[in-house]
Amino acid sequence: MITYNSANSRPSLGEFVSAAKLWRVWLHMGVQDVKSRFRNSVLGPTWILINLAAVIAAVGLIYGRLFHQPMNEFLPFLTIGLVIWSFITSSLVEGASAFIVAEGYIKQFPFPKIIYLYRAMVPYVIVFSIGLVIFFVCMALYRRQIGWGALWVMPGFALFLLINFFHLVIVAHVGVRFRDLPHLLGSLIQIAFYLTPVIFTVAMLKDRGLAFIYMFNPLYYLIEIIRYPLLNSAPPPLEVVCVSLGYCVVMGIVAVLVVRKMSQRIVYVL
């Protein structure tokens, strides 16, 4: 039998494990969150695919010509970059409201609070998966080959998922106390978008002496650990792996400190 900590207890590693065992609960809740966004819609979640494809096509055609990039290289690069960026943005901005939107559940049910963080990750993964479909279609249209080396994306995605979960843990706890956090993060992530190689390549920055923009940007390494294997069918560069692992450790430590400091007060603040 799974036992739960009380609402005002400090969560331990055991609570994360107990919450993970309740995967049917948080998976169902996460899927329902996606469905609820398109309630009474004829196409339903298919709109995610349509919207993403339209944005990628419009932005790709404009910026590809603007930057004088070969479309068979630039459009797949842009597609996977936007898909990954959407995941990062969701974990930071939408994640700040994870506990707030689950207020009713937290106050009525004795589930570990962590399940509402797992629940929040489900829509991000679903949207990411839909985005991958567009990426593979794009690669096929331009006859870009995907070799077995692309499987390096699997450990990369596992690390990427863990880092974004740490993001979610941090902002969800802080967001309960500071309700302006989603708005602040939304503004900061918009600025970060124009400082991260998503719609422009690393080569463009190097050619203009702006390599420092991506070298000191941890979000670039989070993107590259997935993007590089998919585009090149090869493992990501060692530098990318090392920085990503280091960033994961830092975010993990921060997440632990935030949980210890703020978790006990969540129910009272909500």
Automatic annotation (TrEMBL):
Annotated localization: Cell membrane
Spans through the membrane: 42-63, 75-101, 121-142, 149-172, 184-205, 212-231, 237-259
GO biological process: lipopolysaccharide transport; polysaccharide transport
Record domain ABC-2 type transporter transmembrane: where: 30-229
Any one Gene Ontology molecular-function term assigned to this protein's record: ABC-type transporter activity
Top-level lineage group: Bacteria
Residue stretches in coiled coil: none
GO annotation, cellular component aspect: plasma membrane
Principal location listed in the UniProt entry: membrane
Membrane topology, record value: Multi-pass membrane protein
Protein name (database record): ABC-2 type transporter
Organism: Caballeronia telluris
